[in-house]
Specification:
- The chain is built from 35 helices and ten strands.
- By secondary structure, the protein is an alpha/beta fold.
- α20 packs antiparallel against α21, α22 runs parallel beside α24 and α28 runs parallel beside α31.
Length: 745
């Protein structure tokens, strides 16, 4: 029986392996093709080979009761396994997978709770890398390219040569104990499957597996020994407990850099080699593609430079005694001739050139999980095409199509599928425009599978997921953000729960930071509105409740806090206060708010930075009576006050309004006097503070303040000093003058 079985050890996603394998299939004309892949998914092979399917795609399997437990197997057009399946479908040869069933794999994954093992099927041994290092190459990719991919005269006998080399490596691995137990179990199962399949079929048989497994499959093992290896497997999941289907994949996710263990360095280079394998001008096509990308990036590339790059590629291959230019020769020639020796220009295009941005498409007959099916319907309705390459889109929410796109992207973000990243203003200000950066990742399909527990449509799943999150959230800012997310996603059920939950937490909280954080975004939505239908009355009620709670909690929040906490609270207070200016608070609430601010000013245990901040708000609203402000400044900026406390008050008041010193001469005099009284070491200690405050002024404002300070006369370029204060200023004038003119002290 072994005489009619032909074993081919391939490299996953190797176009050279595919080319040689197809040639071998044409010669052998097998009636049965057995391929490395989960044996309980063989019935999905016809869907893979469907004319509507556009590669890359991946076989996704997951546990029906535990969607987080999943596994995927990617296929590219140039993958040998895919070409074997395609050949079998075209010729009528029986085609089947023979590897360990997903029922065992997922059962193992559930038992081990190892998501990394679920998501990636990566061998612990890199046989290609070992062979490459033995041959004197730096990496396996370069060696494989030279021997197989870029060598058009390669013969089918290479399979036997590689098999012999791998067999030697396996002998060494057996001696050192580096072969994984999982590999041994899989190989035992595949040997059993090969035996069973061959018994039921006549004629030649071709077995296609990774090169690492081929020697082990040809070894003679007793049926008893192989079955003994399988006894350690956990109880297999039934067919009803497993869901398997094809999902779209992306070319960047075929790359090793993405974390895919069986990946290649340059998927698009391999795609090019496969598509142009019979084209004598494939090198010229590749260099022309590079030139086009460089031009799109704004670089000038002449036809003469393209010709010279082609000539240099051939010259480098001759120098290195290669049959034809490979990837390395082309890259070096392009950098020299098209990038003028600047590798930076190459780096600007290499991601697009080598990784690509293609997204596969599955046939309409492929059974999709409900959420994936709904996503396809919504994508089509919103006219949003999935692409791996980042692209920016601008949405007008006043148009039905713009609103549909926005709603879809927001709902996907709720489900943990960040297909789009929101950029620019508009998220919280209720603008009628949104900007997004879109980039599709294959993992998004898996993320959707994990959300099946919440519903079978995007809207239903997003609603239920938000409702669940709301029930467990106790922090007011997070609740406010969650409510805003439901508004943007147009999740009516979740919005009702969100408003109710927000009201409950607001009524019970005394966390002033959380209250102040939540207020501005809600007021922005209420004031500016959006293209979406919003319950403005309900939002207004929540805002007033938050305002009432903040007014009660604020006076107590300023006691016993450090400088960092005071600075953070000051910023929250300013943002909330400015937001209240845009909202029609009731008279009683506004009165309560101002009363809270005054209590902060008056209370002796309030942190001085907060006192200064609140004093500025009181001053800006013209609430100080005659001499009240002067008295407050005299009380907080005097020799009797510790320097650090006075500095905090100074920063709190002038941090947002340094320009006040230009036209409030009385305040300027108080500040001037306080600075004069500072000892030199204390003055130097306060210099960073002064710089932070006065850097908020522009150059003209700082110059005007300097003139007011030293009483510059408009007589030529001379300054008249105030002689009566000269003895006090003489030691510090240089430092102050340098500070105000942005010179380094």
């Amino acid at each position: 029986m072994t005489d009619r079985i032909h074993y081919f050890g391939i490299r996953h996603h190797g176009p050279g392996s595919s080319r040689l394998l197809v040639s071998a299939l044409n010669d052998i004309q097998p009636s049965l093709i057995l391929i490395e892949g989960p044996s309980d998914c063989s019935d999905l092979i016809p869907l893979l080979c469907n004319a509507e399917t556009t590669l890359p795609v991946a076989l996704l399997s997951y546990a029906a009761t535990n969607a987080e437990c999943s596994s995927f197997f990617p296929f590219a057009e140039y993958s040998p396994e895919y070409q074997a399946c395609l050949w079998g479908q075209k010729t009528g040869a029986q085609t089947a997978f023979i590897d360990l069933p997903m029922g065992y794999r997922l059962a193992q994954a559930i038992k081990q709770d190892d998501k990394a093992q679920q998501r990636e099927e990566c061998g612990q041994v890199d046989p290609i890398g070992l062979l490459a290092r033995t041959a004197g190459y730096e990496d396996g990719e370069s060696w494989w390219n030279d021997v197989i991919e870029e060598h058009q005269e390669s013969h089918i006998s290479l399979f036997a040569a590689i098999e012999n080399a791998i067999a030697a490596l396996r002998e060494d691995a057996v001696e050192t104990g580096t072969i994984s137990q999982q590999d041994l179990i899989r190989e035992a199962y595949m040997r059993l499957e090969i035996k069973n399949q061959c018994k039921a079929h006549d004629g030649p048989v071709v077995v296609v597996t990774g090169a690492w497994h081929t020697p082990a499959l040809q070894e003679k093992h007793s049926l008893k020994d192989d079955k003994a290896l399988l006894k350690g497997l956990p109880k297999k999941l039934t067919d009803r407990q497993i869901k398997s289907t094809w999902i779209p994949w992306t070319t960047p996710r075929l790359a090793k850099a993405s974390g895919y263990g069986a990946g290649v360095q340059a998927p698009m280079w391999y795609q090019h080699l496969w598509q142009h394998q019979h084209n004598p001008h494939q090198l010229e096509h590749w260099i022309a593609q590079i030139a086009a990308l460089l031009r799109l990036n704004g670089h000038v590339v002449s036809t003469a430079s393209v010709i010279e790059a082609t000539r240099l590629s051939h010259s480098l291959s001759h120098l290195r005694q290669k049959q034809r230019p490979g990837f390395e020769e082309v890259r070096e020639a392009v950098i020299a001739c098209l990038c003028y020796g600047e590798s930076l220009q190459w780096q600007q295009i290499q991601e697009t050139l080598l990784l690509g941005h293609d997204v596969g498409r599955v046939a309409s007959s492929v059974p999709l999980v409900p959420l994936l099916e709904d996503l396809q319907v919504q994508q089509k309705a919103a006219k949003l095409k999935a692409e791996a390459l980042q692209r920016e889109v601008s949405l007008d929410l006043r148009t039905p199509i713009g609103l549909a796109k926005s709603t879809l992207l927001h709902r996907l973000r709720v489900l943990g599928v960040p297909w789009g990243q929101s950029i620019g203003a508009g998220k919280s200000r209720g603008t009628f425009r949104e900007k997004w950066v879109l980039a599709w990742e294959p993992e998004f399909a898996i993320n959707l599978v994990e959300n099946l527990a919440y519903g079978s449509t995007l809207e239903q799943a997003a609603n239920n997921k938000v409702i669940e999150a709301l029930a467990h959230e106790t922090q007011l800012p997070q609740l406010a953000d969650c409510v805003l997310s439901t508004l943007e996603s147009q999740l009516s059920n979740a919005l009702a729960h969100g408003i109710q939950r927000l009201s409950q937490v607001a009524a019970q909280t005394n966390d002033v930071n959380g209250l102040l954080k939540a207020i501005p975004s809600l007021i922005d939505i209420h004031r500016y509105g959006t293209a979406r239908t919003l319950p403005m009355d309900e939002i207004a009620v929540i805002i007033e409740r938050l305002a009432a709670q903040a007014a009660i909690a604020l006076p107590y929040a300023a006691h016993g806090i450090d400088a960092e906490e005071a600075a953070a609270l000051s910023q929250l207070l300013l943002k909330a206060h400015r937001a209240f200016d845009l909202f029609d608070l009731s008279d009683d609430l506004r009165c309560n708010w101002w009363s809270a601010i005054w209590q902060l000013i008056e209370h002796s245990s309030s942190h001085k930075q907060l006192v200064g901040c609140c004093a500025y708000l009181w001053y800006a609203d013209s609430r100080f009576k005659d001499d009240e402000l002067k008295h407050l400044f005299g009380k907080n900026l005097s020799a009797a006050i510790p320097v650090q406390s006075a500095a905090y008050f100074f920063e709190g008041f002038f941090g947002e309004a340094a320009q006040v010193l230009r036209y409030e001469k009385s305040l300027l005099a108080i500040v001037n006097q306080w600075i004069q009284q500072l000892e030199e070491d204390k003055f130097i200690e306060c210099l960073p503070l002064f710089r932070r405050v006065f850097m908020n002024l522009d150059a003209l404002e700082r110059q005007s303040l300097l003139h007011a300070l030293i009483n510059k006369k408009q007589q030529g370029q001379e300054y008249r000093m105030l002689t009566h204060i000269l003895p006090v200023w003489s030691q510090q004038m240089q430092q102050v003058g340098a500070l105000f003119t942005e010179e380094t002290v």
